[in-house]
Design brief:
6-stranded parallel β-sheet, alpha/beta, TIM Barrel, 14% strand, globular, 9 strands, 264 residues, 3-stranded parallel β-sheet
Length: 264
């Protein structure tokens, strides 16, 4: 039986988790619910409240309007914000809206951007090699993680991405436990595939994936502001694994990916 002090220590474990959120958005948008936060100040306040140390952040404009505008806005907005890293939305270079692949990635890295996000359904383009192959290869060479929200892809596309670009970290976000029959076979051969925890909240899921050897594929994410961070924080805080394993999921796995950016 656990001692009371041990139980209290576990309940306060989030203070030591050094949480690093891989999935945040800021900026005004048309579909915002009444009272839903959108500003940088609100994000910072919520990060303090939920003891989240760092976050990858993209701008709502890059999802809902124009990636080029949103990319510019997020760099300007986050300038000088400790612990907040801008994320750029990608497009096919062949459309003429962004520079060639080498220039785009160079500009990205020079602006402190260490992750990208893709919205192929929203922005009507293909992730196939004939459309995005050159850009994905350059991102892969620099080990830049790519966020891929649920409902923006099908699992066959994910398999092809991971198979054709084995050194490109592909982070699927907003995945629920019902996708496990896709994920487990994919993870057998594609360890560059990751999942955020924003909607991955089934009971005992983290211990289950630890037993399977897939703890390294989990990244803490909240999908802020669509979801309050409380559920994602609680899933890690109360998971039946030790503190070091919670810290891996809470931020360690993502920090390792970010530290590798530009090392290729």
């Amino acid at each position: 039986m656990k001692k009371e002090n041990d139980s209290l220590s576990e309940e306060r474990a989030d203070t030591a988790l050094q949480l690093f959120d891989c999935n945040c958005m800021v900026g005004k948008r048309a579909d915002r619910h009444e009272g839903e936060p959108w500003s940088l100040d609100q994000l910072k306040a919520d990060m303090v409240y939920y003891r989240i140390s760092e976050a990858l952040v993209f701008h709502a404009l890059s999802r809902d309007y124009d990636p080029v505008t949103g990319n510019r806005e997020i760099v300007e907005l986050l300038g000088g914000s400790n612990g907040l890293m801008p994320v750029w939305s990608i497009l096919p270079p062949g459309s003429g809206e962004i520079p060639d692949s080498e220039t785009f990635v160079s500009d990205m890295l020079n602006n402190g951007v260490k992750a990208v996000i893709a919205f192929p359904k929203f922005h009507t383009y293909s992730l196939a090699s004939w459309s995005m192959g050159k850009l994905l290869s350059v991102l892969e060479r620099h080990r830049v993680p790519m966020l891929l929200p649920f409902q923006q892809f099908d699992w066959n596309e994910v398999y092809t991405l991971c198979h054709e670009h084995p050194h490109l970290p592909v982070i699927t976000t907003g995945i629920n436990y019902r996708q496990m029959r896709y994920l487990l076979p994919l993870w057998e051969t594609n360890r560059n595939l990751y999942v955020d925890t924003s909607w991955f909240s089934a009971a005992d899921l983290i211990p289950f994936l630890k037993e399977k050897g897939y703890l390294g594929q989990l990244l803490f994410g909240t999908n802020y502001p669509a979801y309050a961070p409380s559920a994602a924080v609680s899933v890690i805080t109360y998971a039946d694994v030790n503190l070091e394993e919670k810290k891996l999921v809470g931020g360690g796995n993502l920090r390792k990916l970010i530290q590798n950016v530009g090392m290729g």
